[in-house]
Amino acid sequence: MADDPGRPDGLPERIGTVLGALVVIGTFALLAWTVLRGVLY
Prior knowledge:
Helix content is 76%, strand content 0%. The chain has one helix at residues 10-40.
């Protein structure tokens, strides 16, 4: 399950990275949705 056995604390770092990426993607998705809604309606 662990990609690097030398670092047992790699999982929290991975979770933080994934959460950060989700926040960025969600922000861009919300912005794109707002722009599209403004253009379409």
